[in-house]
Amino acid sequence: MTEGYIVEAYPSLEGEGVKLGSPALFFRLAGCNLRCAYCDTRKAWEEKPAEGMWSFTDNRRKLRNPVSQTTVEEWLRVWKQIYPTVVFTGGEPLLQAKFLCEVAHLAKGLGLTTRLETNATLAEAWETVWADIDQVSADIKIPSTSGSDFLLHEHRNFLERARGKLIHIKVVVGIETGTEELISAAELAAEVAPQIPLVIMPASVEDKPISIPNERIIEWLRALEMIPLEVRIIPQMHKLWSLP
Ligand code: SF4
Fold first, then answer.
1. Which phi and psi angles does 151 have, rounded to 5°?
2. pLDDT per position as a tens digit, 76-119
3. How many Å lie between the centroid of ligand 1 and the Cα of residue 81?
4. Whole domain around residue 144: which residue ranges?
5. pLDDT tens for each residue of 46-64
6. Pocket residues: Cβ below 6 A from ligand 1
7. Strand, coil or helix: what is 160?
8. What is the 40 CA–ligand 1 centroid distance (Å)?
């Protein structure tokens, strides 16, 4: 049995993307292979934190890492009646692929739906967990907000291998985001997940989603109108709801 490093675990509502508002149990796994400029979960960058946090409203307690599968199973059994989905988020959960694989298998065995939130760059690790993941919430990173190179090749490699799963794709944008990078991201989304709306998500600064001027939104929508894909612009609602 593998042990894992968890930054925090909490029941909450999905605050991003097309599953917005759906209740889920979140496990934020430690470590990330990227360093996005807009990252709001830098606390998850450390690969092996000695402690994490289990929280539910005012009931917060520390958890000691590494965490065993038995502990995770206890949490799942307590909450599974009202939180039917488990979300593995990060950081980048695929960095702990073996632990993720075993915990996702456990969750599936308890009748839960499993969703992986990923930066969609670790295709080989994905191959080891895909059987027990029902839904994939994937980011396509664009240079204007990530502050790094366009990872289109890595994203394509990953998303091609995730075909057959329910794939939700998000792109985090800022005021400076250009139409060319958005078009490239939307073309890839239209190839691998044509039935699911592409979510364009304004970045957050100091825990508040930035405001995007209407003329900028119109410019983006005009640029995307030739791509056969529904587009929705949705900020991070959990920040506005003051949820974790
Ligand atoms: S992939 Fe996610 S957790 Fe990692 S640096 Fe980017 S935003 Fe932060």
1. -100, 35
2. 998 898 999 999 999 999 999 999 999 999 999 999 999 999 99
3. 30
4. 6-172
5. 999 999 998 765 577 888 9
6. 32, 34-36, 39, 41, 44, 90-92, 119
7. helix
8. 8
